[in-house]
Amino acid sequence: MIGLMQRHYSMFDYIFLGIDQAIRTLDHYPRTTGRSYPAKDIPEQILTESQRQHSAGLMRVNHAGEICAQALYHGQGVVTHTPMIKAKMQQAAMEEGDHLVWCEQRLDELKSHTSYLNPFWYAGSFGIGMLAGVIGDRFSLGFLAETEQQVIKHLEKHSQLLPDQDQRSYTILQQMERDEAQHRKEAITAGACELPLVAKKTMACVSKIMVKIAYWV
Ligand SMILES: [Fe+2]
Ligand SMILES: [Fe+2]
Predict the structure, then answer these.
(1) Distance from Cα 149 to the centre of ligand 1, integer Å
(2) 172 CA from centroid of ligand 1 (Å)
(3) pLDDT-based confidence at residue 7 (cuts at 50, 70, 90)
(4) Is 2 a residue whose pLDDT tops 80?
(5) Is the residue at 18 inside a domain?
């Protein structure tokens, strides 16, 4: 983040950075802050087959959600002209990268896979992020704040839906929820505007479709 603030980057630099970020994200090698796995000290408990499949479905949705979060931040980061906001987008995307790695590790432990549609989720979210960024910084930040608010609600719901025995997944979701709340706070502090109700409802509708599909594939 410091490097991004001190050096002047051209539009081409950001385009190549965007391509690099997309490849890294979809190739299971996102930029992260390097924080440790939240569930590392939580003992693995025995899950029935249906519990394992249910936990895996929920964590696949969360992983796909983090793909979308990364893409939204990357898309907005490419088009915004404000260096401070650009740097914040890059930093937040790295923290979403932590979430991505944690969800994927948990899916491995649950002997399952990430969503086969991840390239589609990434491309769609990147485009939406760019569009929000083009409208303007305050709208872009408002879009982020609303996204994080909806993600927090979603994580609260998923924390309740997990089998009681799956404390490892639960611990990961709890840490993610704390991070998303911080992202939301930072977007509001940076000048986010309140989005129109129709925009909020459209976002909720689109994310519901993604949740239903990613649970299975
Ligand atoms: Fe996240
Ligand atoms: Fe976030």
Answers:
(1) 11
(2) 11
(3) low
(4) no
(5) no
Q: What is the pLDDT of residue 175?
A: 97
Q: What residues contact residue 206 under an 8 Å CB cut-off, 6+ apart?
A: none
Q: How far is CA 72 from CA 44, 127, 128, 137, in A?
A: 33, 8, 7, 14
- Residue whose entry in the numeric block shows the structure tokens 């404000």: 82
pTM score, two decimals? 0.89
Lowest average pLDDT, out of 23-27, 61-65, 95-99, 208-212, goes to 23-27
- Ligand 1 centroid from CA 181, angstroms: 10
Q: Is residue 28 part of a domain?
A: no
CA-to-CA distance for 111 and 102, rounded, in angstroms?
Answer: 14
How many angstroms does the Cα of residue 207 sit away from the middle of ligand 1? Answer: 14
35 assigned to some structural domain: no
Q: Per the domain annotation, does 13 fall within a domain?
A: no
**d(Cα 108, Cα 57) in Å, to the nearest integer?**
12
> For position 100, which CATH number holds?
1.20.1260.10
**Domain interval for residue 72:** 48-216
- Average pLDDT of the segment spanning 13-31: 80
The domain tally of the chain equals: 1
Percent of the chain at pLDDT > 70 equals 95
Whole-number Å distance, alpha carbon 174 to ligand 1 midpoint, is: 11
Question: Which of the ligands is closest to the CA of residue 155?
Answer: 1
Residues with CB under 5 Å of ion ligand 2 are 180, 183
Distance CA 5, CA 217 (A): 39
The pLDDT, as a whole number, for residue 24 is 83
What integer best gives the mean pLDDT of the chain? 90
Hey, what are 77's tokens? 């980061």
